Amino acid sequence: MTVNLSKGQKVSLAKPGGGALARVRMGLGWAAVKKRGLFGRVTSQSIDLDASCLLFDASGHLVDQVWFRQLKSKDGAVVHTGDNLTGGAATGAAVSDDESIIVDLQALGPSITTLVFVVNSFTGQTFSQIERAHCRLIDELTGAELAGFHLAGSGPHTAQIMAKVTREPGGWAMSAIGAIANGRTFRDLLPAVEAHL
């Protein structure tokens, strides 16, 4: 059963019957605002958002990153499935993702304690051009959606800090962040991310 998170809410990622999750997928989907064109025609536009995963150690040091220019972490535990330049998966009735990042939680080095997922517009398009966007965490082995979060906040910003997954004594937990930010790449977002570690 999916847990629909609100901004600031946290949920444990322990399996209902006990045991630890092995592989999860963070999916990001978005749809552009429809525009009225000539003679009242509704036209769609392409919006290029980019999902990234930032890997931090317990001291808050950025150890590695996965984004459209580095599709795999150095240890191979985090893999980006590829860059989507148009969006649009969030337009249908069923929820689907435009970009995904797969994380093998068991393969992550013990020094990695926090994964932060961010989204930004490399081309500078703002969230005022986005009708709806979501991120969701899925158990990669079963396909079950574990937690979902609607990215609200249409406005002149070009990025959002979506969520973080943290290593805790009993396993992993996900927290919805939903903080707006500005930047073309994850590097531009690092000062804003640090406030949420």
Description:
With 197 residues, the protein is mainly beta. The chain has a single domain (3-194), classed as sav2460 like domains (Lipoxygenase-1). It is built from 1 helix and 14 strands, in the order ββββββββββββββα. The strands form 3 sheets. A 6-stranded mixed β-sheet has the order 1-12-11-3-9-8, with no helix packed on it. The longest helix has 9 residues, at 186-194. The chain is globular. The protein starts with a strand and ends with a helix.
Widest beta sheet: strand line-up: 1-12-11-3-9-8
The major pleated sheet works out as: 6 strands, mixed
Question: What is the number of helical segments per DSSP (H or I, 4+ residues)?
Answer: 1
What is the CATH topology assignment? Lipoxygenase-1
Instruction: Estimate the helix proportion, in percent.
Output: under 10%
Tell how many strands the DSSP assignment holds: 14
Shape: globular
Task: Write out the CATH superfamily name.
Answer: sav2460 like domains
What is this entry, summarized?
The protein is mainly beta. The protein has a single domain, classed as sav2460 like domains (Lipoxygenase-1, Sandwich).
